[in-house]
Amino acid sequence: MATLSIKFKYAFPLVKAGMVMKVREKGLTIKETESKESFEIMAWVHDLMPDKRTIVLRDPTGIKEFLVDPSVVKGLTRESLVKAKGYVHSGESVIKDIKVIIKAPPKLPIDVRNPPADDPERFSKYSYLVIRSPKYMKVLKIQQWILYGIRDFLISKGFIELLPPIISPCSDPGLRGAKKLRTKLYGKEYELMSSLIMFKQAAASALGKIFFVGRNVREEPPEHLSTGRHLCEFTQIDVELAFAKIDDAMRLCEDLLKYTIGFVWDKCRSELEELNPSLEIPRIPFKVLTYDEAFQILKEMGEKVVYGKEFPQDSETKLATSLGEPIWIIKYPIESRGFYYMPDQEDPGKNRDFNLILPKGYGEVIDGGEREYRYEKIVERIKLMGEDPDHYGWFLDLAKIGIAPSCGFGIGLERLTRYIAGLKYIWEAVPFPKVPGVAPTP
Amino acid sequence: MATLSIKFKYAFPLVKAGMVMKVREKGLTIKETESKESFEIMAWVHDLMPDKRTIVLRDPTGIKEFLVDPSVVKGLTRESLVKAKGYVHSGESVIKDIKVIIKAPPKLPIDVRNPPADDPERFSKYSYLVIRSPKYMKVLKIQQWILYGIRDFLISKGFIELLPPIISPCSDPGLRGAKKLRTKLYGKEYELMSSLIMFKQAAASALGKIFFVGRNVREEPPEHLSTGRHLCEFTQIDVELAFAKIDDAMRLCEDLLKYTIGFVWDKCRSELEELNPSLEIPRIPFKVLTYDEAFQILKEMGEKVVYGKEFPQDSETKLATSLGEPIWIIKYPIESRGFYYMPDQEDPGKNRDFNLILPKGYGEVIDGGEREYRYEKIVERIKLMGEDPDHYGWFLDLAKIGIAPSCGFGIGLERLTRYIAGLKYIWEAVPFPKVPGVAPTP
């Protein structure tokens, strides 16, 4: 039997015959009926042209225009679910009958054809409609393949992926002004994970090379909304390597990014050609600047930088953008970062750490470093930060027994998705965004 | 250059040459030195034989015995990290010098050689040591490949994997006696996700065929500890198909389980041969019983079952075990389940739902069904359960616009891991378990 020529544009790449096709026959795609020229589809009304002679239908594979008689679409509303029957005539697809399965109200809270990315409050509140738009369907497909590529790369290098904890009595203390969320389990205080740093050190001590795809939650200062680079719920690809050094980890990151971007080009060529055609597979290794070198350049650029503090994120972003390529910044001053970095013996006052800053305004996407693993030093650093060591109970118990020296990093998955898909805002890079200062959202 | 014959037993399957080998040379594996018969390794002291003439060292690839002179191991403690130098002589590996990098205390809270799975409180409290034991390193490797196999299968069928939300103003109301955890974001009440059901319906309405690897949190009644089948933090492979029916979803589950178990046999043959050699690739389709049929059989078996309520989990587990094969139970009474199932038009009072019950005492591993998607009916069902519709704000807003009819299911990943790895308790099937009634744990 011949297949009809009516196809939605963005076909899923791996749909195979068999049982799933059986499922699809029941709805999503075109079903052959007796005549090879007729068809029947289940789809959402994406758009109705003002002349009522053209209708755009949408299913998970994309959108498609059909000719229609105005009488058939009378009273029809966008985002209604319909069963449509039609035929193909001289290459034109014509719909002759529409049955409404679910009628959407005439007024919708956002325009699915063009979701309001410039209005993060409405964009996040109605995220369940945003994900219906063809643009964000493509972004989510790209994100799936980014994650797939990262997993494939790491597992091929012998890493073990572990399930990420969601709550623990203690989470990362170094949050750049964000707050941790709290909850209770059996009356005991827990925190939602804001980073998996302590679990990474514990797991690398057991399994050597590990990663988590960690979902973290932080209450970001509301003013971070304007950066377009912060989410309250975000994903960190959290990688840790026992006995490794920063050079090993930085090379691993470079290879991983190069591999992943190439992989996504393979899997999502049409999507990238539409959303971000200028995306290049990066040339590695990336340029390296020390904190001190970056500080000098930023001062000369007129940026407001204070020695001994992390650079304002806008400033480091401007730096990478002005250089036009991804930049490693290494060896931050000890006092500027969390307690878990290892001081550099050869460069007193500095950590053995690194950040990767992307150009074109995308900013920081990876941070990492060698870890402090010595019990006394960890306690000393926690106190220096004005924190109570008792809060870090299980981690310090483990440190007393012994943690492997290790090096690791976290990749911000939504930031990487934003870069790869060429998105203006980070809330465009996740299916149900929670943006700074806005609650409640789904 | 020849490679030395000293290898740890459980080599990671995909370690490749190149950068990662460079990392490994620095520590975890044996380093060739000038003489081809000598070696140097970084490893943990797994065991010391009472005669002090044999030492067992451990690295992420497994454990290995070495001969040693008692003077070399004087004062050495288990779980210390050491750098050991030695040589191979007549097939025996001999260690001649040990340098302690981190000295573990003489008394450890658990025995890493044989973690106390029968004592869930200590097992979960010291999970960071449990994952060092060779047995649980194997379990975690199996779990990684289970997840990999599931992802591969679903993605090959055209499903899109989405990032799972962690918090939302509302989560699943139907929890079999467990409580939801609460938190606040910007002063607003949120719940930790206890299931992704509402997000699944929203996402399937947009993308058709979707899945989440959802990390859910519930405060289980402390008495659920004794079942060995409940965790407070657990992973659900949450799959949803727009326009599908229960038959489609049940066939998909069967194919998925068959594929995944075969895949794990391929990837983890030595681990499964050790942990669960009798694991079979299941014959599909599985046997199907209606709730009414299962009720009759359970009554005849003398089980305490009440018509109209879910079966006690012990009872349904006994049923599958007595039949010696996985069993589908379908068409539960409406009042026994959550509000989101679709009633069966042809069988009044019953849902179009299904549970998969595993034999050999493993019990329920999948539940699913067709979903109620009609706004008025959802509100009616919420009220019938004595709940306030206002609590389900965003979901009802979406239902008013329109949700696709869909069918879906959740696979308990830790339960499946327990079944595949042949584990006695579910807390053995996750790296950092949170067990009923026990807090705080990491």
Strand residue content of chain A: 15-25%
Average pLDDT across residues of chain A?
90
Overall structural class of chain A, as computed from helix and strand content, comes to: alpha+beta
Strand order of the largest sheet of chain A: 7-11-12-17-16-15-14-13
Report the total helices of chain A: 12
Termini separation of chain A comes to 45 Å
Most extensive chain-chain interface? A-B, 110 and 110 residues
Overall morphology of chain A: elongated
Catalogue the unreliable spans of chain A: 1-36
Main beta-sheet strand count, sense and barrel state of chain A: 8 strands, mixed
Rg from Cα of chain A: 26 Å
State the helicity of chain A in percent bands: 25-40%
SSE ordering of chain A: HEEEEEEHHHEEEEHEEHHEHHEEEHHEH
What is the quaternary state of this protein? homodimer
Number of E strands of chain A = 17
